[in-house]
Amino acid sequence: MSHRAKRQTACFLSLALLLVLLLLLNINTGSIHMRPGEILHVLTSRETADTQGQIIWEIRLPRLIAAAILGGALSVSGFLLQTFFNNPIAGPFVLGISSGAKLTVALTMIFFLGSGRSVSSGGMVAAAFAGAILSMGFVLLISLKVRNMALLVVCGVMIGYICSAITDFVVTFADDSNIVNLHNWALGSFSGTGWENVRTLTLIVLPCLLFSFLLSKPMSAYQLGEGYAQNMGVNVRVFRLELILLSSMLSACVTAFAGPISFVGIAVPHLVKNLFGTAKPLVIIPASFLGGACFCLMCDVIARCAFAPTELSISSVTAVFGAPVVIWMLLHRK
Amino acid sequence: MKNLSLRTEDLSAGYDRSPVIRNISLHARPGQILTLIGPNGAGKSTLLKTLAQQLEPLGGTVFLGKNPIKSLSANDIAKSMSLLLTERIDPELMTCRDVVATGRYPYTGRLGILSAEDHFKVDEAMALTHAMELSERPFRAISDGQRQRILLARALCQDPGVLLMDEPTSYLDIHHKLELLGLLRRLVKGRNLTVIMSLHEIDLAQKVSDVIVCIKNGQIDRMGTPEEIFSDEYIKTLFDIEQGCYLTYCGSPELPKSVGKPSVFVIGGGGSGIPTYRRLHRQGIAFAAGVLHKNDLEYPIACALASEVIAEEAFEPIGDEAFENAKALAGSCDEVICCLAKFGTLNARNRELFMHRNALCPQRMRQRMQEYQ
After folding, report:
1. For chain B, what is the domain count?
2. How far apart are the first and last CA of chain B?
3. Within a domain: B1
4. Is A261 in the B-facing interface, judged by CB distances under 8 Å?
5. CA distance A332 to chain B (A)
6. Fewer beta carbons under 10 A from the terminal one: N or C of chain A?
7. Which residues constitute the domain of residue B361?
8. Closest CA to A78 of A235, A266, A272
């Protein structure tokens, strides 16, 4: 086995180990303390009748599964966008895609709750996807005019601000009953995730991830630029469309369930690429997923525990850890 | 060896439906280098892009071997034709070997994992381009010359029959230009490759190509072997050279001559006068040269730079007419420089000219010019 293969295997194993540790830590953290033996008992007996069982099965487990899957989805979505724009600071949050999704979800929620109906998780995802695609469309339009990547990112940030402003506006004039609901969600949080949500998001995220993984080959061709990719037999137009749809779907899904979460999409792929010493999609897509899952689980523990019983919004925690990584990355680019 | 030719029939292409190139019919054969030359904006890159299927033709057909290229799948085209582009690539965290290995993609499966044979081909291509020692270096960290070698290795391990290259020598210094083109020459014969490339260095195009295609205003202006194409007058018209000229015989471009009544007369021959011509020309001093034989190697340069040249027919001793003309002209100049150290039977009368005007030797002249400055 070559040196590189050994390094990558070691990295995969350590990430997997870290994920397991974080899962255990997550299930063991919260306002009600339980001993590991009790938790093991609840998990193995599938006992949901008592309080402990309720907490583990109905609150902690779905939440940590959602955090892991959505974190992974967000990182992969970031990696796809970075490949698409050939720019390491592209990401769903920076380009305004998350904010676009947030806007449409807020509008949908207000509309449905206002008329006294509830929104299914599938409906939320559909709304978020529409918003994500809308923002993405704007970014793409700009990218046709602007070749400069820094400028494109600035435009993305502006789109994000516009969407957030409209969201705030809408929220301000929404009925009182909706506001609490909306406000929590708009800040970003994994709290209140139930099994139904987990089922929906798994059904959406896993096929998207699989599809992304199958795009590894054209993606690595595309890393050499459009001209060479085309010469290697990649249908560039179709491939670009696939990338856009997949990354929008993944980030829309995250936004629909947990609100906009910042910096994960940039920081995690960057850390993972440096850890593995390669940018090969075949390695980085699964590695980003694992890394993103770990990152979000860690941030969620902190969000819950740092100022317990008050819970922080997940986005502020990811920003605290993610933003320095991004700054460090910008400073160390050649 | 794939022995594929690339042929076009009445090809036209361009952007937004307005054709940049029109009626292009050319035929590139295995074992040959076909070079596109022509002025900037003539459509060379557009033509290459169309051949590479990156630009949809507006009319006409491209044939790869016997088949219209449209009838082939993207993967089949990838297996028969590879590219070396001018666009800069900046692949993140890729070693040189990784970049070369991308050439094997059309041969790999769904996930792009290389087989043992693929690895062998990668090594082979890197050895061919003498790039083995770069193997584990990050692609971003190597020089332009090395990058071009890596990209050529990439193109070769794609195992193509046809190789398209857009300005492969741009960014390269002369050492690497010669190395790259020398390598290409060997590969073309060794692998029976069909090469189509564009070059700005027409002196190199003249030396490396089997076929030259001259593109002007989006059309083929002329096509043929370098010997058929290259003449001073034709290059001048092809590139619309208004100032200066291009000497095909020497492969050298020359700046416009200094005009006016000559103030220095240079006696040269056999190449001895060239440094003095260049020095005077740089200083902007108008000068005359003579008596030169028309087959002297410095005759074209003297014609390009001197405001007047007195010449004698090839292989003839200097005759009375040329001698008298030279004497009169030298008499009207302020200074006469003699660059010749030895005289032979054919130019014996240059010695007479030299004695007649008590000419300066080039060293003395150099001092004199430094005094001027």
Report:
1. 2
2. 62
3. no
4. no
5. 13
6. C
7. 257-372
8. A266
Given this model, what pLDDT does residue B205 score?
A: 93
Summarised one tens digit per residue, pLDDT across range A274-310 is 999 889 999 999 999 999 999 999 998 898 888 877 7
- pLDDT, tens digit, 9 for 90 and up, residues B259-315: 889 989 999 998 899 999 999 999 889 999 989 999 999 999 999 999 999 999 999
- Tell me which chain A residue has its CA closest to the CA of residue B141: A334
> Chain A, 134-153: which have a CB under 8 Å from a chain B CB?
none
Q: Which residues of B touch A228 (CB under 8 A)?
A: 83, 85, 89, 102
Residues B206 and B104 in one domain: yes
B199–chain A nearest CA distance, Å: 19
Q: What is the pLDDT of residues A124-138, one digit of tens each?
A: 888 889 999 998 888
Of A33, A23, A22, nearest to A309 by C-alpha is A33
Does residue B77 belong to the interface with chain A, where contact is any CB pair within 8 Å? yes
Same domain, yes or no, for B71 and B215? yes
How many independent structural domains does chain A possess? 1
Q: Are B80 and B137 members of one domain?
A: yes
Q: Please compute the mean of the pLDDT values over residues A162-178 and round it to a whole number.
A: 79
B341 touches chain A (CB under 8 A): no
Residue in A224, A274, A278 nearest the CB of B102: A224
Confidence of residue A211 (pLDDT cuts 50, 70, 90): very high
- Residues in chain A closer than 8 A to B82 (CB atoms): 231
Q: In the predicted model, is pLDDT for residue A148 greater than 80?
A: no
ipTM computed for the complex: 0.82
Residues B248-259 have a mean pLDDT of 86
Query: Is B111–A216 a contact, with Cβ atoms under 8 angstroms apart?
Result: yes
pLDDT of residue B373: 47
**Is B89 an 8 Å CB contact of chain A?**
yes
Nearest to B74 among A86, A233, A273 (CB): A233
- CATH number at A60 reads 1.10.3470.10
Residue in B83, B105, B110 nearest the CB of A214: B110
CA-based R_g, chain B, Å: 27
Domain-located, residue B251:
no
**Residues B56, B83: one domain?**
yes
Query: Given B85, B93, B106, which is nearest A233 (Cβ)?
Result: B106
DSSP letter string, A194-209: -HHHHHHHHHHHHHHH
Question: Rounded to 5, what percent of chain A is helix, strand, coil?
Answer: 80, 0, 20
What pLDDT score does A207 carry?
A: 95
Euclidean distance between CA atoms A212 and A223, whole angstroms: 15
Partner residue opposite A273 with nearest CB, options B85, B89, B93: B93
pLDDT-wise least confident of A100-114, A201-215, B237-251: A100-114
**Quick check: helix, strand or coil at residue A226?**
helix
Write the DSSP assignment of A34-92 as a string of letters: --HHHHHHHHHHT--SSHHHHIIIIIIHHHHHHHHHHHHHHHHHHHHHHHHHT-TT--T
Does B49 score more than 50 pLDDT? yes
Note whether B112 contacts A217, CB cutoff 8 Å.
Answer: yes
Query: Residue B340 — pLDDT band, cuts 50, 70, 90?
Result: confident
Q: Looking at chain A, which residue has its C-alpha nearest residue B84? A: A228
Residue with structure tokens 């949500």?
A197
